[in-house]
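Need a sequence for this fold. Nothing fancy.
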């Protein structure tokens, strides 16, 4: 499902226009991205949580030359599914 299809489904379920649904979804995504980028955790009970994870520096290998190399530390977004979400997907 892409964003357009999601907008259609949300508009139908919430009984709002497609434009309103698109604005709501876009606002939600913007808030989640901004909060996670600032190091905050967002928890939606039953659905899951979004947070930022820190990856430490580690050793790796150059796939072309097989020489060892250092992979620098970085920050990555992470999502953990909630209990209800997990149970619905894998009963």
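Here you go.
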């Amino acid at each position: 499902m892409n964003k357009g299809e999601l907008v259609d489904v949300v508009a139908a379920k919430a009984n709002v226009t497609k434009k309103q649904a698109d604005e709501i979804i876009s606002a939600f995504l913007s808030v989640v991205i901004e909060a996670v980028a600032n190091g905050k955790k967002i928890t939606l009970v039953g659905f899951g949580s979004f947070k930022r994870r820190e990856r430490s520096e580690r050793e790796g290998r150059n796939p072309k030359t097989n020489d060892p190399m250092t992979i620098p530390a970085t920050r990555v977004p992470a999502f953990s599914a909630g209990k209800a979400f997990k149970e619905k997907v894998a009963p």
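For context: Helices lie at 3-14, 18-37, 83-89.
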